[in-house]
Amino acid sequence: MRTKIVAGNWKMNKTLPEAEQLINDLLKQVDTENKVEVIIAPPFVNLSMAVDKTQGTLIDIAAQNMHFADSGAYTGEISAPMLQALGVNTVILGHSERRAYFNETDEILKQKAHQAYEKGMTNIFCVGEQLSDRQAGQHFKVVETQLKNALFELPLQAYKNIIIAYEPVWAIGTGETATPEQAQEMHAHIRQVLAKKYGQDLARNVRILYGGSVKPSNAGEIFAKPDVDGGLIGGASLNANDFNAIVEAAKS
Ligand code: PGA
Known about the structure:
By secondary structure, the protein is of the alpha/beta class. Helix content is 44%, strand content 16%. The protein is built from eleven helices and eight strands. An eight-stranded parallel β-barrel has the order 1-2-3-4-5-6-7-8, surrounded by six helices. The site of 2-phosphoglycolic acid has 13 residues, from β8.
């Protein structure tokens, strides 16, 4: 039985007071009933506050990125030990916006994934094709390559702390969602790719989230698909009512 996850990626939104307000609102509403794992990923500068406020609650806090080195001359970057010292042990890696706007390559992501593994951090690893890849019929191949290049030198035990997020780039922030069938077939494909390398057991147990314009109105039908284990939510995670409705949709 894979417990569903609803993770909110706030991206570059919310000042400290705004973030505090949103967390207060979420804490009033969100009741996981231990049926769903809830994670939120605020910007770095809000992490400390977020960890304090959610201590003892069922909401876990994640970072949106981190560097692969422990420390050093990397101006503007944040390391795994810095996050862990705040009590943050989960990180989103390989988001398509990081890949597209900050030139994160598979090679860099491999190093980051290895760093997360070595530090015992949970890695929400994002993969997903561009619209042109899908139009060219290359979407399965593209996602397979992203997985192989970044994750396939990790040992099997690393996967107990890996969550895959399938986010077709054409569906992120566009209002256009993959159909539940498109999500399901890619999730099934990801399990097949993992099964070939690491065996059926691992492939059956890894949680795979769908991301890309998930909202209260479509979450239920997407989450109902057998290989979809919840969602990575961008825009709708910035509104407590919407995010809570998505958490509710993950319970059934
Ligand atoms: P969206 O973003 O829900 O706003 O499409 C999803 C994501 O980028 O993780």
